Structure prediction request, 286 residues.
Amino acid sequence: MAKKMMVNTPPEIQRNNLSPFILTLKALGIHNILSFDLISVPSVSALCQGLESLYALGAIDDKTNLTKLGNQMAEFPTEPRVSRMLLESIIVGCSSEVLCVASSLQVRTLFYKPRTQAQKINFDSAMVDLMDSSGDHVTFVNLMKINDETPFTEEDCKENFVNYIALKRASEVRAQLSKFLKQYGKIASMDITQSSEERSATIRKCVAAGFFTNAAKLGNDGHYYSIRGKHMINISTTSALYKYGLSSEYIVFGETYDGMKGGIEVRNCSSIEGKWLRDLAPHYWA
Prediction:
């Protein structure tokens, strides 16, 4: 077994999603990525996947040149999917809410997982005003908006299973991202006359605008499968969608990781409508 293991861990550039790296180089005027002097050269397949992701997001054209949108996305200190989501929020008028989502994705988990049976009961009670049945992204918005109105103390966070340090950091990150986003339009909250369902749908459409490549569909066996690649995935037990969500044919997710019991698990999940995928990225799903 030991002989089959790699002597050294591959450099990070050879393991990670390369779209942020490629976008940065493109913004610096380096068109031919392979000509750039790298200590560890990533695989051709990894580069192709990074370019495909940027093309799908509209950051580069079919000649791999940066688009106007790509130049805007490169200005943000986030990965391209997050910056694409933020720019979409300016267009549809929910930038204040989506800034909450974006900042939440930059920190460690905002909620502590209950461990004992008593904690699980208390957790369910605490989540009544926070959790959204659509999943994690609107739940993040709910938490941060409530905190804006009445800031949580450390004791409040403890009682509500909220990570105080992560929440504080998310608020700081939101303020920083807001400065970048202001360059492209007014930071606005959604119309208070909208129903909670309309508000939730608008936020999740923005999320899907950035994360449509991370979409999965419910199979006949009750499991979700990624639309591209048909890989079976499991929603993390820490996700609001796992316990509090309503059944949905389609979902989007933020990231994948190896599950404790094997298989692929996903976190930062929300339900979406299948038609949103074709509306937002017809070129990708054609």
About this structure: The chain is about 45% helix and 10% strand. The longest strand covers residues 250-258. The radius of gyration is 20 Å.
